[in-house]
Amino acid sequence: MMLRSLSVFPRLHPPFNPTRTFSTFRIQSMLTSELSDVEVSSLRANKERLAKDLHHSCQWGYGIRWGDNPTDTGMQRLALSEEDKSVRDWFIQTTKELKCNVTVDQMGNIFAVRPGRRADVPATFIGSHLDTQPTGGRYDGILGVLAGIEVLKTMNDMGLETKGGVGVVNWTNEEGARFPVSMISSGVWAECISLEHAHGLKEVPTVASLPTAASAPETMKSALQKINYLGETPCSYKSSPMAAHFELHIEQGPHLVSAGQRIGVVTAVQAYRWFRLNIIGRDTHTGTTAFEHRADALYAFARMMVRAREVAASKGCLASVGIVEAKPGSVNTVPGLVSFSLDIRGPETELVAKVEEELRADFDAIAAAEGAGIGKPCRVEWTLDFDSPAVIFHQDCIDCVQESADAVVSDAPVADTKSLVRPIMSGAGHDSVFTSKRVPTSMIFIPCKDGLSHHPEEFSTADDCATGVSVILQAVVRYDRKRFA
Amino acid sequence: MMLRSLSVFPRLHPPFNPTRTFSTFRIQSMLTSELSDVEVSSLRANKERLAKDLHHSCQWGYGIRWGDNPTDTGMQRLALSEEDKSVRDWFIQTTKELKCNVTVDQMGNIFAVRPGRRADVPATFIGSHLDTQPTGGRYDGILGVLAGIEVLKTMNDMGLETKGGVGVVNWTNEEGARFPVSMISSGVWAECISLEHAHGLKEVPTVASLPTAASAPETMKSALQKINYLGETPCSYKSSPMAAHFELHIEQGPHLVSAGQRIGVVTAVQAYRWFRLNIIGRDTHTGTTAFEHRADALYAFARMMVRAREVAASKGCLASVGIVEAKPGSVNTVPGLVSFSLDIRGPETELVAKVEEELRADFDAIAAAEGAGIGKPCRVEWTLDFDSPAVIFHQDCIDCVQESADAVVSDAPVADTKSLVRPIMSGAGHDSVFTSKRVPTSMIFIPCKDGLSHHPEEFSTADDCATGVSVILQAVVRYDRKRFA
């Protein structure tokens, strides 16, 4: 009996015949609650279709080439760029074809909902982002959105219905690369960031690929208007409610790939704080000004950056500088002004605070030493741009992911398949950080080559991608079953 | 008799009556060789007129305000900008009104020559530059050109004729701030730099005030054409010959002002080398990449800059970074590429070479350490942009300046007026470095406040400026007398 049911739910591995599966369910459409546990565990995504769709979507904004295959390029699809508009248009067209209702909110977040049996409850969402870093890859964020599309396609093919709807959301400017606050649009949705602040945010001038950035920087609002993605729906969890939010992502770190593991069940996200700092010194001539007569803001910066790594490492944290600008920017003038970003991360909110506290004292001391000889020492100013305390994900979601992961890897050719799944903490922030503040949330990680991310050569195999999508497919089904049990 | 002659050569201190002096000489025009030594020593510039002309010329491209007086601003007059065009037009109009023949060469260098008695010999030149740093002041370069104008005005007022002509030259892009090779146009004139290389040089993108710089950088040639200063005269000491080149400049260092001295007789210019360096690491995610998994090009840069100061200081040299760019320039991406400028200077050519040699080894070691953990260490590339060996100026010119300086300060209210004059070495490069390779050359320094330069608050008193111009006036007269003695 059970074996017969399984023939109705073929493992959707290649060779996959969608017509047959589809027609099976056209005859006998089925609700998630009507599936047996074994049937749920046998659900799989279509690896080839997923890979095809993912790389198809990467035609808009493909970046630096690093290999010979057509898909061996990075991505450069900055939020709200022309390339981003193109992939958004494709996303809407595709989800509409999958019978979704699509809405766009005031931050350009796109919500595509495949209706469930009950119209009076919010959908369970799969979400991530389609924007990338300036030298990003094809998986960070993109896989998470494409996972949602593949889940919808699989469900449609099978005629599988859910009690609550299933949604896919594309969050705007998750990377914070063009507009320098990451996850800003899920932050507005969660009502943790004000719409006014977000709309007024200016693009970073160092993103050189955008010709406007240096001369007449766009705001988020003007950029949204320019590509016609300033929606009318208020950006809020109240206007676009969710039952839960699941996100599939590459690990962006080396743990899974080093250990040969297949799935990370993400239980938490480390804390982090982003700062902008200014060091104010004094412009002087490089050829005529002795070291003791200088207030060299760039030299002070160099000492600070070296110190930041020492302090962070001593506390098991990370400290990184991604952006630096020195002014006036002339070979023979000692820079009198340096601006830079500082990104401090750690497993606990308190540890990040301790690193910050120590660095504030150390940076003051470094600044005071530079220029002391002329009685005009450098000084340093800190601005907190972003504060993301450590996050613990929702146990119901974690459980759904854990069960699904164990099920999906169960046919792997190893003795202890459960060893292929591990609980993991996210080092990076994700939109799930903000959704977790309003709705049950958790994430799924898959391995990526060398743990590399934010780099054109960022890579995950088609197998690993499909494994991740199979897990999120089952997790959404399990969650739908649980919430109406 | 001598006293009567002196009444013919009134010390041109305020109150100065140009009409009377002028009319005196209209009756009895006089050649430099006909002056007595005491008469030469009594020659003075007009302090008020000099100050008025200098600040008048600073209306084009005035920069950051730092005080309440109308002239309390810095300068931002980048080479071949619209502001530079305006002051060039003024320079040509002014020198033509002073009866000069004006030519413009292929680098936009402007030569204004007041003819002497003999048309068959080259003129003795006074020269410097009208361009400034992006956050420069009102004296660096500008004083040197205005000194030439004031010398011509004084000579015209007095009806003083020279045997060889007297010229004033404005050299293009001395600062190297917009087009990143300093003294490039005197370098082409001296045939030490090729015209093709100079014409092809692109503007620095970090000079943010120029909107073209980031998107479509001008070359020197296109910039010359744009403001109509691409002259037809070949840029060469053969086509625009000089008998000698004298340059008046602020010290840009603290020695004169600290010692209360009035004039520096510049005997030499320290050696320097300018490099562009690239550090190639690997872009990765700041939140998920442990320090030992990074090849952080910016962290390597920070260590290199700290090391550069240590090594330079140990050898009595200077090492400075004025420009730094980190790519891709995103808060949460570890920069995989950093480019920066390195300016090494020292009193001897060999010392600069030793600093370079040591830094090449140290930088390689720093790069090798960063990323070693992943087997993909950073690497560093050096490009030499500019090499200026130490220069010794011409003894004839130095002698003229020394005698003139001693004469000009002789009426100061101190016991030992000669103590107000000192021999000095230039820390900065100047166009005189290149002219010295082809014709007898030397320089004159005056004190500047706090030794500060390449800064909006760069300042010299009107008295000190006039003292300097009086010295260069006498030096040109003495040189004219010597060469035809």
Descriptive account of the structure:
The structure is a homodimer of 485-residue chains. By secondary structure, chain A is α/β, with parallel strands linked by helices. Chain A is 36% helix and 20% strand. Chain A has helices at residues 2-8, 18-27, 37-41, 47-57, 82-97, 142-158, 184-189, 195-200, 212-215, 220-226, 255-259, 297-314, 349-369, 395-408, 431-435, 462-483, and strands at 30-31, 62-65, 73-75, 101-104, 110-114, 124-128, 160-161, 166-170, 244-250, 263-269, 271-280, 284-285, 318-320, 324-327, 333-334, 337-346, 379-388, 391-392, 421-426, 441-446. In chain A, strands 4, 5, 6, 8, 9, 10, 18, 19 and 20 form a nine-stranded mixed β-sheet that branches. In chain A, strands 11, 13, 14, 16 and 17 form a five-stranded antiparallel β-sheet that branches. A two-stranded parallel ribbon of chain A has the order 1-7. In chain A, strand 2 (62-65) and strand 3 (73-75) form a beta hairpin. In chain A, helix 4 packs across helix 6. Chain A starts with a helix and ends with a helix. The model of chain A is unreliable at 1-27 (pLDDT under 50). Chains A, B: GO terms for molecular function: hydrolase activity, acting on carbon-nitrogen (but not peptide) bonds, in linear amidines. Chains A, B: Belongs to the peptidase M20A family. Chains A, B: It comes from Penicillium olsonii. Chains A, B: InterPro entries: Amidase_Cbmase, Bact_exopeptidase_dim_dom, Peptidase_M20, Peptidase_M20_dimer.
